[in-house]
Amino acid sequence: MKKILLVDGNSLLFRAYYASAYAGSVLKTSSGIPTNAVYSFANMLTSLISERDYFDVKVAFDKSKKTFRHDKLENYKAGRSATPEDLIPQFQIVREFLDSANISWWEKENYEADDLIGTMAKIIESNCEEYEVEILTSDKDMFQLITDKTKILLPKTGTSNLELFGKEELLIKWEVSPENVVDLKGLMGDPSDNLKGVEGVGEKTAIKLLKEFKTIEGIYEQINSIGGKLQEKLINGKESAILCKEIATINCEVEIENLNFESIKLNLSGLVSFLEKYEMISLIKRLSNRVGLINKTEESNTKKIDFKVLNEWDNSLALNDNFIYIESLEENYHKGEILGMAILNENGNFYLENLKDDAELEKFFLNKKFNKLTYDLKRTATLLRNYEIDFAYDSFTYDAMVAAYVLNPNITSRIQNLINIVQTDLFLEEDEIIYGKGAKLNKGIEFEKKAIFTIEKAQIIKETFVPIIEQLKQNNQFNLYQNIEFPLIEVLFEMEEKGILIDKLELDKQTARTLNKIEELEAKMKLILAGDIEENFNFSSPKQIKELLFDQLGLPSNKKQSTDREALEKIIYLHPIVALLLEHRKLTKLYSTYLRGFEKFIFADNKVHTIFNQTLTNTGRLSSSEPNIQNISVKDELQKEARKIFISGNQTKFYSFDYSQIELRVLAQLGQEDTLIEIFKNKRDVHTEAARKIFDLTVDSEVSSEQRRIAKVFNFGIIYGLSDFGLSNDLKISIIEAKNFIKDYYNSFPKLITYKNILIKEASENGYAATYANRRRLVPELASANFLIKNFGNRIAVNMPIQGTAADILKVAMVNIYKSFVIENMKSFMVAQIHDEIIFEIYDEETEKALNIISKNMEKAFKDLSKIIGKKPSEIVVELEVNASKGENWFELK
């Protein structure tokens, strides 16, 4: 059978836009034409065509906002948000792309893409026995088109990770056949299309009704056999149900002229011209390779890479600068297997696969005269340790991943994305294209293919090295990279290597106890809900919880029928089950994430070796994974208990050093707010003093705990985007009262509003927000015409410089403490970094010296930061305050 791909063009372009926008790919031509959505669209579509070997491809678009469905329902799709401004011009550009590539596309006045695709699918089914159809769309309405010869390709994430739906898969998902999809939509409605359906009838009830009565018409023919409130809902919603079904039904009888199907032949020269016109240079090689595969020709721009395979390394080949990439596919590199290594320099391109017992290779890594430049140095060093290859850490002089992150933290850290950081005509295929993914992951691909791919990765590092360093210098960010981020890599590497000891007996005890509590709670809930739920009801399923609360119990909900914590807390007093569900959620998270979930991360040394992600956040903060040790709450008593499983050694104790209100101190310094600076200088409580200002209290007046709490909400609200609406919610007051409170606050600290306005103005003009050390974050949201998106951009513009500067201060402290420990030849070490806190494991005999080094370096870190970036340390007038605590486990800290 020949496969034909029908593409919902609007759906794919929207998906491509949001996937690229939130990944930070704000692509524009030099003249300012946005191209990010088209770039992703072209990449995804050509990849799909080459991977799935389609005979022909047709793309359909919506032509206009008004269709025949608006004649039936005036406010059809009225609830949808406005199309982003920078996406609008890309609708025409994507049509130009299809023309240039010789891919047929269709649009028709008064009809949607669904109708054109539905018609094409039926024409193929009726007239072309040798063809089968796959429809690429995010629109689940198209499930109605599924037949034995037609399936739906549904993107699960971004514009990749596709799920194929046939009759069987649809039955598992919705328990209905394709012809009943429109009945399902008629009953439950579809908020995205502004279809109301029958009020109070959700997915579960709709499916149950259709199983019994087959169609909407069948339901109303036998309406008297349905009793109680459900009958009343159905009678009240009859007109809406029938209308919604009619509107959701795809018209498969549209007149389409000149429709024919023939073997696809992409136009390479037209495609290259298009890519050059819109400056998508990095796509030329990738798409050229795919065109050759799709057209089944040798047409390709592939330039043969010369490389030499070595059985053993030869140090006569080494030079001053050597670009290295070690290939490994494991996400957790502490368990990583080395598949091969590329070493590139001016002597040539070299590939090695058998690294064990290579004495010359170890000499190469130990020799400090040979500089090693790599991508993800922490990963590279760990993989070498895994294979017991000794190395001189100081010989590693460049990390492309960290350098690229400093230039643009919005772009995801993948070696392929180096080509999106600087202008280059290089190309690097996706890992999954070479190795497959998931169940199809294959490490044992042919030797030459693997060698070339590894060499290409090293080549990317080599070719982008000079442009990245030059751009760092142009942006005045080289000091940030060279003197803060790069030395921090070694600190994090050693922290990961040292690991954290686990008390397995305590872990087993807490795991058993928590599981027992979960089972008791579920038994209690089943007793309360007797008759309302089935025996195998899953209390961890948001879908089943939604149906239970809002369909069966009839509790009030928001439009999205959200079951998140905030939504449930609003209805906690309406039914006893809600409080128990919240408790159950807390316990199951504790069990699955922090107890049972931790077991798989314990290594043979009885430790967990977390990965500290240096390039994940937009603000410069560190994060943690495999496992995440940063999000174990100290406020929640149940979660806090889990901290007992982290224990110190026999001769050591844990010490936690925590910055007190660092972000408010940074705000005072950067905003030059005299009143705040004075409060910190005199070591007064900032929340108490803020309360005195807001409530106009005298110096001798007592500040109540409630007044202090309100002031605290304000102080942190300045950083995180204080609004009158948010404040009224937090303090349970009216919006008018909230407005007056905000006015009083800014009158008390007048320079803060000026500083906020300056930050927003600078970010709007520059396109990015920046920290004191010139760490930048792009803020494309500020250019949006959408009020909510722009407002979010305003919050980023204010929050990022403060939170990012606090992160930079912490990093400077960590680097300087680490250096001091090394100079003093100390055994004590850093264990973890969590928010504003650094945790150490300190040997008993080193306690006094270690505490002195830590306190001193943390307190002067802001001034040290100032010195590093070439400013005057004397500018920093706000002192940093550090709180310390100790314990034999993490529970005892603080």
Describe the structure.
This protein is α/β, with parallel strands linked by helices and 894 residues long. The chain has 5 domains: 2-248, 5'-nuclease (Rossmann fold); 308-499, Nucleotidyltransferase, domain 5 (2-Layer Sandwich), CATH 3.30.420; 502-601, Taq DNA Polymerase, Chain T, domain 4 (Up-down Bundle); 652-662 and 806-892, Alpha-Beta Plaits (2-Layer Sandwich); 668-797, 5' to 3' exonuclease, C-terminal subdomain (DNA polymerase, domain 1), CATH 1.10.150.20. 48% of the residues lie in helices and 12% in strands. The chain is built from 34 helices and 23 strands. It starts with a strand and ends in a 7-residue tail after the last strand.
The span between the termini is 67 Å
Q: Calculate the mean pLDDT score and round it.
A: 89
| CATH architecture descriptor name of the largest domain | 3-Layer(aba) Sandwich
| Strands in their spatial order, largest beta sheet | 3-2-1-4-5-6
Percent of sequence in beta strands: 5-15%
Going by helix content, strand content and strand pairing, the class is alpha/beta
CATH homologous superfamily placement of the largest domain: 5'-nuclease
- Overall number of strands: 23
Overall body shape = globular
Percent helix among the residues? 40-55%
CATH C-level name of the largest domain: Alpha Beta
Q: Which value, in Å, is the CA radius of gyration?
A: 31 Å
The count of domains is 5
**Tally of separate helices:** 34
